[in-house]
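Quick note —
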Amino acid sequence: MHQFFIGDDQVGKEYITITGSDVNHIKNVLRMRPGEKIRVSSASGQDFYCEIAELGDAFVQADILDEEVPKTELSSRIYLFQAIPKGDRMEYVIQKAVELGVYEIIPVDMKYCVVKLDERRAEKKLKRWQAISESAAKQSKRSRIPRIHPVMRYSDALEYAGSCDVRLVPYENERGMRSTAEALAKLEPGKSVSIFIGPEGGFSTEEIDAARRDMDVLSLGRRILRTDTAAVCAMSLVMMGLENAEEHIYDRDLSG
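Predicted structure written out below.
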């Protein structure tokens, strides 16, 4: 079932109205017809199963079906602070992080980043990155499209992450998994989580020292991971930890 996103003003009592580029996609790319079902999410996070009723020149109208839509969003907001990698690795990180439930992705300019973006290139990249986020959100049946922030300086990123309940920093020179287990044990449904991923050149001494002041520095294992691999690994650990905790609470409520 195909997924689409709309504004809150496009939701009626009995039907929704799709406009913009999705109209051409539905009519001419997917070649959908009246009677076919779609999944639709509004800007405020409402989810609907709908049935296409009318295909206009500039709109698609779909009737809202009286069916419960499974929730796909985590109860916690995960903020991924990703050092800008070289090549197209940022696109890969965005795609996979969105699939794994990230809330926001913040590209960060760190000391040993190989890539340095000027204002014009950064603006162009941001549009491309946001489009990838939307595409991945549709594919994975998310209820919202994660925001991709403009590139931040490391000091600003630390400040932005300061309000998160749990702050994690995977570090290639950290040894032993005890710190990792202790950090992941802090994950609870509803708590916000920040994850800092370093660049190809690693964190500088100053950067990791600044992170240690109020963040949990942990290991992702004995092997040195590429920056994009580290992002996916850390996101997977956090996602699984949160979903496991949510299921425990659900099971406890049922038995209680």
